[in-house]
């Protein structure tokens, strides 16, 4: 029992260290690109690492994999970041418009919610599928719509993480990005698996 407890504690410590390390890499490489040009490719690299972990590839060289992904996806990742920034600006404008016109509040809130949820699926879809930009946004929206359970899991995970970070704000620096990405990627990966199983059944039929 004691050996099992020590083994479990070691595994937990190892994963805590891994997530902290990836979070620091995410911050560091975001700063390397002066944040504006670094955050999106750094986020792609972070999701690439976490996806591999979720799929069982736990022995990857983290720094080298992160750096290779960052370099490879720098230009395309920044194009994606620009589109997301434009969507964020549209949401900001819409939220201000809601304050002025109460008649359209409910439908506009629903549209904004759908956009935000679609954005949460974008990076997992980006690193999991090799698709064009148009397909990336279409697939993200479609997967979000047909997998409400994954979206609910994602939101529950965010709520839990919010309360932990609220009471222990120092953890935000070490785990804010990586744990958020872990919640998003694990929820989306379940959705990906369901879709792939359905496609396999359809091909077999």
UniProtKB/TrEMBL annotation:
Classification via Pfam families: DUF624
Keyword Chloroplast tagged: no
Keywords from the named record: Membrane, Transmembrane, Transmembrane helix
Chain ranges passing through the membrane: 20-50, 80-100, 106-129, 141-164, 170-192
Keyword presence, Zinc: no
Domain of life where this protein originates: Bacteria
Protein name stated in the entry: Membrane protein YesL
